[in-house]
Design a protein that fits this description.
two-stranded antiparallel ribbon, 219 residues, btk motif of tyrosine-protein kinase itk, single chain, three-stranded antiparallel sheet
Length: 219
């Protein structure tokens, strides 16, 4: 039969061309149920075959036999007219500025500065807080002055750079500022959400943000 006379089957999961004269009741293998998508999965509702890969999902063989269908499905969306009741316009009348409030006699009274005296316990608490802040500054200075070992790795997510000397700090750090998320088989960074099911591919994803290297966790 001339291929120009063949008809296209519109059954979901089939898409084959067929001769209408040879169309039998079991010529077509298709999915009678609708597709639906949930949490990155593509699923056939009739047989629950699912995949996170769209091409793999489309290649799933049908779960039902029947005749080929030459009728193209109607995808027209019915038009819905929304009518809103007329709302009477509200009129706002401006009556001018409000009159200023009258000043009370208390406003014109003489102001007197009060002297503040600190108790002994308040002085001790202040000295303790100042000492604590001084110790914190000394600890931070000590950490920042630590000599980094050659070969120390950057602690930023997905950065594979290692410390080779002061010049390494001049290099740009390509990393993921977000957190690693694992949900229903998918692995992705919260900052860019490039999802994959393969753990190796997840670890090899290049960072989505540029900044400075971090050689010590917490700095």
């Amino acid at each position: 039969m001339d291929s120009s006379n063949l008809l296209l089957c519109y059954n979901k999961g089939c898409g084959a061309k067929f001769n209408p004269d040879e169309n039998k009741k079991d010529s077509c293998i298709f999915h009678p149920g609708p597709p639906y998508f949930h949490d990155a999965y593509k699923i056939w509702k009739c047989c629950n075959k699912k995949s996170t890969d769209f091409s793999t999902w489309l290649s799933f063989e049908g779960c039902t036999r029947g005749p080929h269908n030459p009728d193209k499905p109607c995808n027209d969306v019915p038009k819905v007219l929304l009518s809103q009741p007329e709302v009477e316009e509200k009129m706002i009348v401006w009556n001018g500025l409000n009159k200023p409030a009258e000043r009370s006699e208390a406003h014109n009274r003489e102001r007197v500065s009060l002297s503040v005296q600190m108790t002994e316990s308040s002085c001790k608490a202040l000295e303790s807080e100042l000492q604590r802040r001084k110790e914190n500054v000394e600890i931070i200075d000590e950490i920042q002055n630590l000599k980094l070992l050659i070969g120390t790795g950057c602690t930023n997510n997905a950065c594979k750079a290692t410390y080779t000397g002061p010049e390494t700090d001049l290099q740009e750090c390509l990393h993921h500022p977000g957190n690693a998320i694992f949900h229903e088989g998918m692995k992705f960074w919260s900052c860019c959400e490039r999802k994959t099911t393969d753990f190796g591919a997840f670890l090899d994803q290049l960072g989505c943000s540029r900044g400075k290297h971090c050689w010590t966790k917490g700095l």
